[in-house]
Amino acid sequence: MDVFLTGGSGSTGGTVIRRLVADGHTVHALARSASAAKTVTAAGAQPIPGDLTDLGPTAGTPAWLSVLAEVDAVVHAAAHMEFWGPDQLFVDRNLVPTRALYQAAVAAHVKRFVLLSAASVSTGDNHAVTVNEDSPIGKPNIAYSRVKLRTEQELLALPHGETALVVLRPPFIWGPNMANLQGFVDSVEAGRFSWIDGGQHKVDFCHVENLAHAITLAATRGEHGLVCYITDDDPRPAREFFVPLLATRGVDVSKAGSFPRALASPVATLLETVAKARRSTTPPPITHWIVSFMGRDRVYDITRARTRLGYRPVITVEEGLRRLAEA
Predict the structure, then answer these.
(1) Theoretical Cys-Cys bridge with 131: which of 59, 69, 135, 314, CB 3.0 to 4.6 Å?
(2) Residues 11, 60, 90, CA angle at the centre, nearest 5°?
């Protein structure tokens, strides 16, 4: 199978490349710079010079789109990801190029289009402990997630022709060289890290190798309109996950301070209001996303991924932590 991949120079994309190549597939990876081309080549992909910004609303048709006529599947893993910023930023950088790429894939009769979304589309005013794909979504509480949800909805409503659209929703992605892990390390070192309710609430997460496995399954057997949560299937209290995870980076959060959720939520409202009024480009130390992520139990049911994709985690949490500690 030939696969066109975006986001290949990132940690998630690189893992996806290696997984696809190991399974005997050929990967054509979009690369917006010489450095990105070198990275995807080292992972085993054939670099395709180009940039998703070439797909802006006033742009023409970039030459690199011609590769879609030669592939069986598109894996769209690239995204501008921040937990702070206005909706329009994510519309321009994520929704607009994603929609254009999907429409181009449909026009080229690509067999499958795998969209990497996020479990956070259901993180907001939906307070259910266990969530599956049929649960009410509610309203996501950060722009990144709101636009991710809007992207899912818009693409699923578009004509799809012969192209099957498959949507995967991982929660917190972890593993080697992940930027979000470094973000937690930076937060601790800057004295901005605090538990909520002592870190007792259950959280769900997804090792990058498990995600790469799920993406490969989706690209080879996913049916149109299939939406799946993808996790390590091992939810545990936030403290039991993040203490050993951050310890692999030499950071001790076992004695970090804690806010009760009842206090953290109004504090987040106040700090976000002030930050927005000042047009701050960096988030405050406590946000509604952090309160939602670490201040309540949230487990994602992956029954659909198991039954419809044949997904099973290929790496355990303990093995992932061991590898990180040894890296």
Answers:
(1) 135
(2) 45
Distances, alpha carbon 47 to alpha carbons 18, 94, 157, 168, 208, in Å = 14, 21, 31, 24, 22
Cα(35)–Cα(5) distance, integer angstroms: 16
pTM, rounded to two decimals: 0.95
Cβ contact 143:272 at 8 Å = no
Q: What is the identity of the amino acid at 196?
A: I
Q: What is the CATH number of the domain that holds 122?
A: 3.40.50.720
The pLDDT of residue 125: 64
Tokens of 319: 């093995």
- Above 70 in pLDDT, residue 181? yes
Within-domain flag for 71: yes
pLDDT tens figures, 210-224:
999 999 999 999 999
- Please state whether beta strands 258-259 and 195-196 pair in parallel, antiparallel, or not at all (unpaired): parallel
Segments forming the whole domain that contains residue 164: 2-174+204-231+299-313
